[in-house]
Amino acid sequence: MGMPSGTELLIIFGIIVLLFGAKKIPDLAKGIGKGIKNFKAEMKESDEVVADAPKKVEKSDEVVSSNETSKSTTQA
Question: 3-state class of 7 per DSSP?
Answer without folding.
Answer: helix
